Amino acid sequence: MNRTDHWGGCTPYVNDTRCPVGPYMRNTSSTFGSDNMIVYEPCNYVSNVAYFRSAVRVCNYANWTASTEEINAVKRGFITLAMGSAFWHDSHTYVGYSFDNNMIAVISYLAHQQSVAQLPFSSILHEISPTNRSTNGVGVADQLTQMTINHGVPEWAQILDTADLPHDYFITFAALISTGFSLVMPFFLVRALISAIAYAIIPKDDADFVVNEYLPALEKGVILI
Fold first, then answer.
1. Phi (first) and psi of residue 60, to 5 degrees
2. How many Cβ atoms are within 10 Å of 200's Cβ, its own excluded?
3. Which of 4, 45, 108, 153 could be disulfide-bonded to 90 (CB atoms 3.0-4.6 Å)?
4. How far apart are CA 9 and CA 139, in angstroms?
5. 94-115 vs 137-145: helix crossing angle, rounded to 10
6. For all residues of the chain together, what is the average pLDDT?
7. 85, 103, 84: which is closest to 153 by C-alpha?
8. Could you read off the pLDDT of 154-164 as tens digits, one per residue?
9. Using alpha carbons only, what angle is made at residue 95 by residues 154 and 140, rounded to the nearest 5 degrees?
């Protein structure tokens, strides 16, 4: 690109820089629309329509046990993720990267909070945090899904990166899997399996939190009900 990139680069305040991309990238870029917008990953860009399908599936399912507020947050999350993920795969900018990953974090956080909603509250169990957060998953979902209306593009990355949620969604995935396992097997098996899996596939600090903080809180919550 030989022109100023108003979306910003991968390196803040440096135009036309692009973030490193994994092996899934298609090497040939394309242009879209009447303005010939450059898209670095054409297939991954258009594939994000699947997230709109996810939102429609959520709308069409009639037997949710979560509240209307929670389900609306999930729907808004999927629709916003469709835009954010497309932004990343077409631009390779830092704000696109942050948009994509943080919206995945929002949706997984909403799912996690719904999965433990009936357990006694603790910040570790419900908020994946040693201290109480300023808002719950619904609140942070509302903040981020309204971001594109209420704030200009130069502010998006900071808003996404400082939102009060578990940004590392691999911890959230581990928490979701742990909770699911606790429904179908004795807790000593949950502890053994999650410990082995966590230390094998996620960073040690994350695994330490899951094994030493989350699992004891989950076990206590399960026993109390």
1. -80, -15
2. 8
3. 45
4. 29
5. 150
6. 88
7. 84
8. 889 899 999 99
9. 90
